Amino acid sequence: MKLRLQRVLALGVLVLxxxxxxxxxxxxPNIVLILADDLGWSDLKCYGAxxxxxxxxxxxxxxxVRFTQAYSMPVCTPARAAILxxxxxxxxxxTTWREASLNRQSDAAKSQWKLLxxxxxxxxxxxxxxxxxxxxxxxxxTFHVGKWHLGDGDHFPETQGFDVNIGxxxxxxxxxxxxxFRGAHSFKEFRYVPGLGPGQPGDYLTDRLTDEAIxxxxxxRGRPFFLNLWFHTPHTPIEGKPWLVEKFRSKLKPGLRxxxxxxxxxxxxxxxxxxRVLRHxxxxxxxxxxxxxxxxxxxxxxxxxxxxRVTDNGPLRSGKGSLYEGGVRVPLIVRMPGLTPxxxxxxxxxxxxxxxxxxxxLLKIPSPLVTDGxxxxxxxxxxxxxxxxxxxxxxxxxxxxxxxxxxxVRIGDWKLLQYYEDNQVELFNLREDIGEERDLSAQMPDRxxxxxxxxxxxxxxxxxxxxxxxxxx
Length: 473
Prior knowledge:
Elements (H helix, E strand, L loop, with lengths): L1 H23 L5 E7 L18 H8 L2 E7 L4 H10 L3 H4 L5 H5 L1 H6 L5 E2 L14 H7 L3 E6 L17 E3 L38 H15 L5 E6 L11 H8 L11 H23 L6 E7 L7 E2 L2 E2 L15 H4 E7 L8 E3 L3 E2 L3 H8 L14 H5 L10 E5 L9 E6 L2 E6 L5 E5 L15 H18 L5 E2 L4
Helix pairs in contact: 8-10, 9-10
Protein backbone atom coordinates (compact mmCIF):
# COMPACT_ATOMS: atom_id res chain seq x y z
CA MET A 1 0.00 0.00 0.00
CA LYS A 2 2.87 2.38 0.86
CA LEU A 3 4.56 1.71 -2.49
CA ARG A 4 1.27 2.22 -4.31
CA LEU A 5 0.76 5.59 -2.55
CA GLN A 6 4.31 6.66 -3.43
CA ARG A 7 3.61 5.76 -7.04
CA VAL A 8 0.38 7.81 -7.10
CA LEU A 9 2.14 10.83 -5.58
CA ALA A 10 5.04 10.52 -8.03
CA LEU A 11 2.65 10.35 -10.96
CA GLY A 12 0.80 13.40 -9.62
CA VAL A 13 4.00 15.43 -9.72
CA LEU A 14 4.65 14.18 -13.26
CA VAL A 15 1.12 15.15 -14.33
CA LEU A 16 1.64 18.70 -13.09
CA UNK A 17 5.03 18.95 -14.79
CA UNK A 18 3.66 17.52 -18.04
CA UNK A 19 0.72 19.93 -18.08
CA UNK A 20 3.05 22.87 -17.50
CA UNK A 21 5.34 21.68 -20.32
CA UNK A 22 2.42 21.12 -22.68
CA UNK A 23 1.09 24.63 -22.11
CA UNK A 24 4.52 26.18 -22.60
CA UNK A 25 5.92 24.11 -25.46
CA UNK A 26 5.07 22.76 -28.91
CA UNK A 27 2.58 19.97 -29.59
CA UNK A 28 3.52 16.61 -28.16
CA PRO A 29 4.84 14.07 -30.68
CA ASN A 30 3.03 10.82 -31.27
CA ILE A 31 4.96 7.68 -30.33
CA VAL A 32 4.85 4.33 -32.14
CA LEU A 33 6.87 1.57 -30.48
CA ILE A 34 6.98 -1.58 -32.63
CA LEU A 35 8.45 -4.73 -31.11
CA ALA A 36 9.14 -7.95 -32.98
CA ASP A 37 9.21 -11.26 -31.12
CA ASP A 38 12.34 -13.44 -31.45
CA LEU A 39 13.67 -11.52 -34.46
CA GLY A 40 17.42 -11.98 -34.78
CA TRP A 41 19.95 -9.16 -35.18
CA SER A 42 20.80 -10.15 -38.76
CA ASP A 43 17.24 -11.02 -39.85
CA LEU A 44 16.61 -7.69 -41.62
CA LYS A 45 18.04 -6.81 -45.02
CA CYS A 46 19.51 -3.58 -43.63
CA TYR A 47 21.34 -5.69 -41.02
CA GLY A 48 22.79 -8.09 -43.57
CA ALA A 49 20.06 -10.71 -44.13
CA UNK A 50 20.84 -12.67 -47.30
CA UNK A 51 17.42 -14.27 -47.86
CA UNK A 52 14.77 -12.16 -46.12
CA UNK A 53 13.11 -9.11 -47.70
CA UNK A 54 12.34 -6.10 -45.49
CA UNK A 55 11.90 -3.05 -47.74
CA UNK A 56 9.81 -0.99 -45.31
CA UNK A 57 12.15 -1.41 -42.35
CA UNK A 58 15.05 -0.70 -44.70
CA UNK A 59 13.27 2.54 -45.64
CA UNK A 60 12.78 3.37 -41.95
CA UNK A 61 16.53 2.89 -41.44
CA UNK A 62 17.28 5.20 -44.39
CA UNK A 63 15.05 7.85 -42.83
CA UNK A 64 16.37 7.54 -39.28
CA VAL A 65 19.16 6.11 -37.16
CA ARG A 66 20.07 2.41 -37.19
CA PHE A 67 21.87 1.07 -34.11
CA THR A 68 24.35 -1.73 -34.66
CA GLN A 69 25.08 -2.49 -30.99
CA ALA A 70 21.65 -2.44 -29.36
CA TYR A 71 21.00 -4.95 -26.60
CA SER A 72 17.99 -6.47 -24.89
CA MET A 73 17.31 -9.34 -22.50
CA PRO A 74 17.82 -12.97 -23.61
CA VAL A 75 14.11 -13.91 -23.47
CA CYS A 76 10.78 -12.14 -23.91
CA THR A 77 9.09 -11.30 -20.57
CA PRO A 78 12.23 -9.72 -19.05
CA ALA A 79 12.76 -7.57 -22.16
CA ARG A 80 9.19 -6.27 -22.15
CA ALA A 81 9.33 -5.43 -18.45
CA ALA A 82 12.64 -3.61 -18.95
CA ILE A 83 11.33 -1.62 -21.90
CA LEU A 84 8.23 -0.39 -20.06
CA UNK A 85 9.96 0.48 -16.78
CA UNK A 86 13.51 1.41 -17.76
CA UNK A 87 14.69 -1.05 -15.10
CA UNK A 88 16.91 -4.07 -15.58
CA UNK A 89 15.07 -7.38 -15.40
CA UNK A 90 17.45 -8.46 -12.63
CA UNK A 91 16.35 -5.50 -10.50
CA UNK A 92 12.71 -6.39 -11.16
CA UNK A 93 13.32 -10.10 -10.39
CA UNK A 94 11.73 -10.92 -13.75
CA THR A 95 14.60 -12.75 -15.43
CA THR A 96 12.71 -15.50 -17.26
CA TRP A 97 9.53 -15.83 -19.28
CA ARG A 98 6.26 -16.02 -17.37
CA GLU A 99 5.48 -19.72 -17.80
CA ALA A 100 8.98 -20.71 -16.67
CA SER A 101 8.62 -18.49 -13.62
CA LEU A 102 5.36 -20.20 -12.67
CA ASN A 103 6.68 -23.72 -13.31
CA ARG A 104 10.10 -23.32 -11.69
CA GLN A 105 9.83 -26.00 -9.02
CA SER A 106 8.12 -28.66 -11.11
CA ASP A 107 10.46 -28.19 -14.07
CA ALA A 108 13.55 -28.47 -11.90
CA ALA A 109 12.25 -31.49 -9.98
CA LYS A 110 11.76 -33.43 -13.21
CA SER A 111 15.18 -32.56 -14.58
CA GLN A 112 18.81 -33.28 -14.01
CA TRP A 113 19.64 -29.61 -13.58
CA LYS A 114 22.52 -29.10 -11.20
CA LEU A 115 21.09 -25.77 -10.05
CA LEU A 116 17.60 -24.62 -9.12
CA UNK A 117 16.78 -21.26 -10.71
CA UNK A 118 15.60 -18.55 -8.32
CA UNK A 119 11.92 -17.86 -7.66
CA UNK A 120 11.09 -14.95 -9.95
CA UNK A 121 8.08 -12.70 -10.49
CA UNK A 122 5.68 -13.86 -13.21
CA UNK A 123 3.78 -10.53 -13.22
CA UNK A 124 5.00 -6.95 -13.62
CA UNK A 125 4.22 -5.39 -10.20
CA UNK A 126 1.54 -2.72 -10.22
CA UNK A 127 3.83 -0.57 -8.08
CA UNK A 128 6.17 -0.10 -11.04
CA UNK A 129 5.68 3.06 -13.07
CA UNK A 130 5.41 2.18 -16.75
CA UNK A 131 6.05 4.23 -19.85
CA UNK A 132 2.33 4.09 -20.61
CA UNK A 133 1.52 5.64 -17.23
CA UNK A 134 4.02 8.42 -17.79
CA UNK A 135 2.54 9.22 -21.18
CA UNK A 136 -1.05 8.93 -20.00
CA UNK A 137 -0.25 11.43 -17.25
CA UNK A 138 1.18 13.73 -19.93
CA UNK A 139 -2.11 13.69 -21.88
CA UNK A 140 -1.53 10.83 -24.30
CA UNK A 141 -4.00 8.26 -25.52
CA THR A 142 -2.29 4.95 -24.82
CA PHE A 143 -2.88 1.88 -27.00
CA HIS A 144 -1.51 -1.62 -26.62
CA VAL A 145 -1.88 -4.01 -29.57
CA GLY A 146 -0.46 -7.55 -29.68
CA LYS A 147 1.64 -9.62 -27.32
CA TRP A 148 1.77 -8.69 -23.62
CA HIS A 149 3.18 -11.63 -21.58
CA LEU A 150 3.68 -9.50 -18.46
CA GLY A 151 1.07 -10.91 -16.12
CA ASP A 152 -2.33 -12.40 -15.46
CA GLY A 153 -5.68 -10.58 -15.70
CA ASP A 154 -4.84 -8.46 -12.67
CA HIS A 155 -1.73 -7.24 -14.51
CA PHE A 156 -3.02 -6.80 -18.06
CA PRO A 157 -2.19 -3.62 -20.04
CA GLU A 158 -5.28 -1.81 -18.69
CA THR A 159 -3.75 -1.97 -15.17
CA GLN A 160 -0.42 -0.58 -16.39
CA GLY A 161 -1.51 2.67 -18.00
CA PHE A 162 -3.06 1.62 -21.32
CA ASP A 163 -6.45 3.00 -22.34
CA VAL A 164 -6.98 0.25 -24.90
CA ASN A 165 -5.73 -3.33 -25.03
CA ILE A 166 -6.22 -5.47 -28.11
CA GLY A 167 -4.73 -8.94 -28.03
CA UNK A 168 -2.66 -8.61 -24.88
CA UNK A 169 -2.85 -11.64 -22.56
CA UNK A 170 -0.63 -13.67 -20.22
CA UNK A 171 0.32 -16.07 -23.02
CA UNK A 172 3.66 -15.81 -24.78
CA UNK A 173 2.65 -17.15 -28.20
CA UNK A 174 -0.55 -17.66 -30.19
CA UNK A 175 -1.93 -21.11 -30.94
CA UNK A 176 -1.93 -20.19 -34.63
CA UNK A 177 -1.41 -17.15 -36.88
CA UNK A 178 -4.52 -18.03 -38.91
CA UNK A 179 -8.16 -17.25 -38.12
CA UNK A 180 -9.77 -17.92 -35.69
CA PHE A 181 -6.42 -17.58 -33.85
CA ARG A 182 -7.36 -20.08 -31.15
CA GLY A 183 -7.12 -23.70 -30.14
CA ALA A 184 -5.31 -26.14 -27.87
CA HIS A 185 -3.26 -28.25 -30.25
CA SER A 186 0.22 -26.90 -29.45
CA PHE A 187 -0.19 -25.97 -25.79
CA LYS A 188 -1.63 -27.50 -22.64
CA GLU A 189 -4.38 -24.89 -22.37
CA PHE A 190 -6.84 -23.37 -24.84
CA ARG A 191 -5.39 -20.14 -26.25
CA TYR A 192 -7.01 -17.27 -28.12
CA VAL A 193 -6.40 -13.66 -29.13
CA PRO A 194 -9.08 -11.33 -27.71
CA GLY A 195 -10.34 -8.06 -29.12
CA LEU A 196 -10.13 -8.70 -32.86
CA GLY A 197 -13.84 -9.07 -33.54
CA PRO A 198 -15.29 -11.16 -36.38
CA GLY A 199 -12.96 -12.70 -38.92
CA GLN A 200 -12.96 -15.11 -41.79
CA PRO A 201 -10.90 -18.04 -43.07
CA GLY A 202 -7.52 -16.90 -44.35
CA ASP A 203 -7.20 -13.93 -42.00
CA TYR A 204 -3.62 -13.61 -40.75
CA LEU A 205 -2.85 -12.46 -37.20
CA THR A 206 -0.12 -9.97 -38.11
CA ASP A 207 -2.49 -8.32 -40.61
CA ARG A 208 -5.38 -8.19 -38.15
CA LEU A 209 -3.32 -6.66 -35.36
CA THR A 210 -2.17 -4.00 -37.81
CA ASP A 211 -5.78 -3.35 -38.87
CA GLU A 212 -6.61 -2.55 -35.26
CA ALA A 213 -3.52 -0.40 -34.80
CA ILE A 214 -4.43 1.67 -37.84
CA UNK A 215 -7.99 2.14 -36.55
CA UNK A 216 -6.64 3.39 -33.23
CA UNK A 217 -4.31 5.88 -34.94
CA UNK A 218 -7.30 7.24 -36.88
CA UNK A 219 -9.42 7.38 -33.72
CA UNK A 220 -6.89 9.57 -31.90
CA ARG A 221 -8.38 12.57 -33.75
CA GLY A 222 -5.54 14.99 -33.17
CA ARG A 223 -4.71 13.96 -29.61
CA PRO A 224 -1.16 12.70 -29.04
CA PHE A 225 -1.06 8.93 -28.91
CA PHE A 226 1.29 6.18 -27.80
CA LEU A 227 0.89 3.02 -29.86
CA ASN A 228 2.61 0.01 -28.32
CA LEU A 229 2.48 -2.41 -31.26
CA TRP A 230 4.03 -5.68 -30.10
CA PHE A 231 3.79 -8.26 -32.88
CA HIS A 232 3.94 -11.99 -32.13
CA THR A 233 5.88 -12.35 -35.37
CA PRO A 234 8.19 -14.17 -35.98
CA HIS A 235 7.83 -16.28 -32.80
CA THR A 236 6.85 -19.93 -33.27
CA PRO A 237 4.65 -21.50 -34.54
CA ILE A 238 6.38 -20.82 -37.86
CA GLU A 239 3.36 -20.15 -40.08
CA GLY A 240 3.74 -17.93 -43.11
CA LYS A 241 1.06 -17.16 -45.66
CA PRO A 242 1.19 -20.03 -48.16
CA TRP A 243 1.88 -17.84 -51.20
CA LEU A 244 4.72 -16.08 -49.37
CA VAL A 245 6.20 -19.38 -48.24
CA GLU A 246 6.25 -20.51 -51.88
CA LYS A 247 7.77 -17.19 -52.95
CA PHE A 248 10.73 -17.73 -50.62
CA ARG A 249 10.99 -21.45 -51.27
CA SER A 250 11.60 -20.59 -54.93
CA LYS A 251 14.47 -18.29 -53.84
CA LEU A 252 16.33 -20.95 -51.85
CA LYS A 253 19.84 -21.79 -53.01
CA PRO A 254 22.98 -23.25 -51.45
CA GLY A 255 25.23 -20.91 -49.53
CA LEU A 256 22.56 -18.67 -48.02
CA ARG A 257 22.83 -18.20 -44.28
CA UNK A 258 19.05 -18.04 -43.85
CA UNK A 259 17.26 -21.12 -45.16
CA UNK A 260 13.71 -21.13 -43.73
CA UNK A 261 10.99 -20.06 -46.22
CA UNK A 262 8.28 -20.10 -43.55
CA UNK A 263 10.25 -17.80 -41.28
CA UNK A 264 11.16 -15.53 -44.19
CA UNK A 265 7.46 -15.30 -45.06
CA UNK A 266 6.65 -14.23 -41.50
CA UNK A 267 9.38 -11.59 -41.49
CA UNK A 268 8.11 -10.31 -44.86
CA UNK A 269 4.53 -10.09 -43.56
CA UNK A 270 5.66 -8.18 -40.48
CA UNK A 271 7.64 -5.76 -42.63
CA UNK A 272 4.68 -5.35 -44.99
CA UNK A 273 2.43 -4.43 -42.07
CA UNK A 274 4.95 -1.99 -40.64
CA UNK A 275 4.83 -0.41 -44.09
CA ARG A 276 1.05 -0.12 -43.73
CA VAL A 277 1.47 1.76 -40.44
CA LEU A 278 4.06 4.09 -41.94
CA ARG A 279 1.85 4.81 -44.96
CA HIS A 280 -1.09 5.54 -42.68
CA UNK A 281 0.98 8.09 -40.80
CA UNK A 282 1.87 9.61 -44.17
CA UNK A 283 -1.79 9.78 -45.24
CA UNK A 284 -2.81 11.51 -42.02
CA UNK A 285 0.14 13.93 -42.27
CA UNK A 286 1.47 12.61 -38.97
CA UNK A 287 4.90 11.41 -40.09
CA UNK A 288 6.68 14.61 -39.11
CA UNK A 289 4.95 14.53 -35.71
CA UNK A 290 5.64 10.90 -34.83
CA UNK A 291 8.56 9.15 -33.16
CA UNK A 292 8.82 5.60 -34.55
CA UNK A 293 10.92 2.99 -32.77
CA UNK A 294 11.45 -0.55 -34.02
CA UNK A 295 13.24 -3.27 -32.05
CA UNK A 296 13.19 -6.96 -31.15
CA UNK A 297 12.75 -8.37 -27.66
CA UNK A 298 15.68 -10.81 -27.87
CA UNK A 299 17.87 -12.68 -30.33
CA UNK A 300 16.60 -15.13 -32.92
CA UNK A 301 15.32 -18.56 -31.93
CA UNK A 302 17.70 -21.31 -33.03
CA UNK A 303 15.77 -24.51 -32.43
CA UNK A 304 13.98 -26.53 -35.12
CA UNK A 305 10.36 -26.01 -36.06
CA UNK A 306 8.62 -28.38 -38.43
CA UNK A 307 11.94 -30.04 -39.18
CA UNK A 308 13.80 -26.87 -40.13
CA ARG A 309 16.01 -24.54 -38.10
CA VAL A 310 14.09 -21.35 -37.44
CA THR A 311 16.83 -18.78 -38.17
CA ASP A 312 20.55 -18.07 -38.05
CA ASN A 313 22.04 -15.16 -36.11
CA GLY A 314 25.42 -15.20 -37.86
CA PRO A 315 27.92 -13.63 -37.61
CA LEU A 316 26.82 -13.55 -33.97
CA ARG A 317 27.18 -16.59 -31.73
CA SER A 318 24.17 -18.56 -30.43
CA GLY A 319 20.65 -17.16 -30.03
CA LYS A 320 17.61 -16.68 -27.81
CA GLY A 321 18.24 -17.54 -24.15
CA SER A 322 22.01 -17.17 -24.42
CA LEU A 323 24.11 -14.24 -23.23
CA TYR A 324 26.35 -14.56 -26.27
CA GLU A 325 25.74 -11.76 -28.75
CA GLY A 326 23.23 -13.79 -30.76
CA GLY A 327 20.95 -13.97 -27.75
CA VAL A 328 21.01 -10.35 -26.61
CA ARG A 329 22.05 -8.12 -29.54
CA VAL A 330 18.99 -6.94 -31.46
CA PRO A 331 18.01 -4.59 -34.29
CA LEU A 332 17.00 -1.07 -33.25
CA ILE A 333 15.84 1.66 -35.63
CA VAL A 334 14.60 5.10 -34.55
CA ARG A 335 13.05 7.81 -36.74
CA MET A 336 11.87 11.24 -35.64
CA PRO A 337 11.84 13.83 -38.44
CA GLY A 338 13.54 17.01 -37.30
CA LEU A 339 15.46 15.14 -34.62
CA THR A 340 17.16 12.14 -36.22
CA PRO A 341 19.41 12.56 -39.26
CA UNK A 342 18.57 10.35 -42.24
CA UNK A 343 20.40 7.12 -42.93
CA UNK A 344 22.92 7.36 -40.12
CA UNK A 345 24.41 4.40 -38.26
CA UNK A 346 25.16 4.51 -34.54
CA UNK A 347 27.67 2.00 -33.14
CA UNK A 348 27.39 3.10 -29.51
CA UNK A 349 26.23 0.24 -27.22
CA UNK A 350 22.67 0.87 -26.02
CA UNK A 351 19.97 -1.18 -24.31
CA UNK A 352 16.22 -1.70 -24.29
CA UNK A 353 16.14 0.05 -20.88
CA UNK A 354 17.14 3.27 -22.66
CA UNK A 355 13.85 3.58 -24.54
CA UNK A 356 11.66 4.85 -21.69
CA UNK A 357 14.22 7.42 -20.46
CA UNK A 358 14.68 8.59 -24.06
CA UNK A 359 10.96 9.24 -24.50
CA UNK A 360 10.75 10.92 -21.09
CA UNK A 361 13.71 13.13 -22.04
CA LEU A 362 12.12 14.02 -25.39
CA LEU A 363 8.96 15.14 -23.57
CA LYS A 364 10.94 16.76 -20.72
CA ILE A 365 9.26 14.52 -18.13
CA PRO A 366 11.48 13.68 -15.14
CA SER A 367 12.22 9.94 -15.01
CA PRO A 368 10.49 8.44 -11.95
CA LEU A 369 12.33 6.71 -9.13
CA VAL A 370 15.10 4.30 -10.25
CA THR A 371 16.02 3.70 -13.88
CA ASP A 372 18.83 1.61 -15.31
CA GLY A 373 18.67 3.23 -18.74
CA UNK A 374 20.02 6.43 -20.27
CA UNK A 375 18.45 8.86 -22.69
CA UNK A 376 19.44 8.23 -26.29
CA UNK A 377 18.62 11.79 -27.40
CA UNK A 378 22.32 12.76 -27.74
CA UNK A 379 22.86 9.77 -30.05
CA UNK A 380 19.71 10.46 -32.06
CA UNK A 381 20.89 14.01 -32.67
CA UNK A 382 24.51 13.01 -33.29
CA UNK A 383 24.98 9.26 -33.88
CA UNK A 384 28.75 9.63 -33.49
CA UNK A 385 28.49 10.88 -29.92
CA UNK A 386 28.85 8.71 -26.81
CA UNK A 387 26.91 7.99 -23.64
CA UNK A 388 28.35 8.33 -20.15
CA UNK A 389 27.87 4.63 -19.47
CA UNK A 390 30.48 2.52 -17.72
CA UNK A 391 29.17 -0.95 -18.50
CA UNK A 392 26.33 -3.13 -19.76
CA UNK A 393 25.11 -6.04 -17.65
CA UNK A 394 23.22 -9.22 -18.48
CA UNK A 395 21.72 -11.78 -16.12
CA UNK A 396 20.02 -15.09 -16.87
CA UNK A 397 20.18 -17.42 -13.82
CA UNK A 398 18.13 -20.06 -15.65
CA UNK A 399 18.50 -22.97 -18.04
CA UNK A 400 17.60 -22.82 -21.71
CA UNK A 401 18.58 -25.03 -24.68
CA UNK A 402 21.30 -22.49 -25.54
CA UNK A 403 22.71 -21.89 -22.06
CA UNK A 404 23.30 -22.78 -18.43
CA UNK A 405 22.69 -20.14 -15.70
CA UNK A 406 25.00 -17.21 -16.46
CA UNK A 407 25.69 -13.51 -15.98
CA UNK A 408 27.73 -11.22 -18.21
CA VAL A 409 29.24 -7.76 -18.34
CA ARG A 410 30.51 -5.61 -21.20
CA ILE A 411 32.96 -2.77 -20.56
CA GLY A 412 34.22 -1.09 -23.71
CA ASP A 413 35.04 -3.80 -26.22
CA TRP A 414 35.51 -6.42 -23.51
CA LYS A 415 32.83 -8.89 -22.54
CA LEU A 416 32.95 -11.49 -19.77
CA LEU A 417 30.52 -14.35 -19.18
CA GLN A 418 30.41 -16.10 -15.79
CA TYR A 419 28.54 -19.41 -15.44
CA TYR A 420 27.05 -20.45 -12.11
CA GLU A 421 27.42 -24.23 -12.26
CA ASP A 422 31.22 -24.23 -12.02
CA ASN A 423 32.16 -20.51 -11.95
CA GLN A 424 33.60 -20.88 -15.45
CA VAL A 425 34.44 -17.58 -17.14
CA GLU A 426 34.91 -16.60 -20.78
CA LEU A 427 36.42 -13.35 -22.05
CA PHE A 428 36.00 -11.88 -25.52
CA ASN A 429 37.05 -8.74 -27.37
CA LEU A 430 33.99 -7.85 -29.42
CA ARG A 431 35.77 -5.37 -31.66
CA GLU A 432 38.14 -8.04 -32.92
CA ASP A 433 35.87 -11.06 -32.44
CA ILE A 434 32.18 -10.31 -32.95
CA GLY A 435 31.45 -14.03 -33.19
CA GLU A 436 32.91 -14.71 -29.71
CA GLU A 437 35.06 -17.55 -31.02
CA ARG A 438 38.30 -16.81 -29.12
CA ASP A 439 38.12 -17.06 -25.32
CA LEU A 440 40.96 -14.90 -23.93
CA SER A 441 40.34 -15.56 -20.23
CA ALA A 442 43.43 -17.75 -19.74
CA GLN A 443 45.72 -15.17 -21.36
CA MET A 444 44.31 -12.13 -19.53
CA PRO A 445 43.65 -12.94 -15.84
CA ASP A 446 43.87 -9.29 -14.77
CA ARG A 447 41.19 -8.28 -17.25
CA UNK A 448 39.04 -11.20 -16.07
CA UNK A 449 39.38 -10.10 -12.44
CA UNK A 450 38.46 -6.49 -13.33
CA UNK A 451 35.26 -7.47 -15.15
CA UNK A 452 34.34 -10.21 -12.71
CA UNK A 453 34.65 -7.81 -9.76
CA UNK A 454 32.46 -5.21 -11.47
CA UNK A 455 29.87 -7.85 -12.36
CA UNK A 456 29.66 -9.00 -8.75
CA UNK A 457 29.31 -5.39 -7.55
CA UNK A 458 26.45 -4.85 -9.98
CA UNK A 459 24.63 -7.99 -8.88
CA UNK A 460 24.71 -6.72 -5.31
CA UNK A 461 23.63 -3.20 -6.36
CA UNK A 462 20.48 -4.40 -8.13
CA UNK A 463 19.70 -7.34 -5.86
CA UNK A 464 20.12 -9.87 -8.65
CA UNK A 465 18.94 -13.35 -7.74
CA UNK A 466 21.19 -16.35 -8.14
CA UNK A 467 20.46 -20.06 -8.51
CA UNK A 468 20.92 -22.61 -5.70
CA UNK A 469 21.86 -26.27 -5.64
CA UNK A 470 19.03 -28.49 -6.86
CA UNK A 471 18.44 -30.82 -3.91
CA UNK A 472 15.94 -32.92 -5.89
CA UNK A 473 18.66 -34.53 -8.04
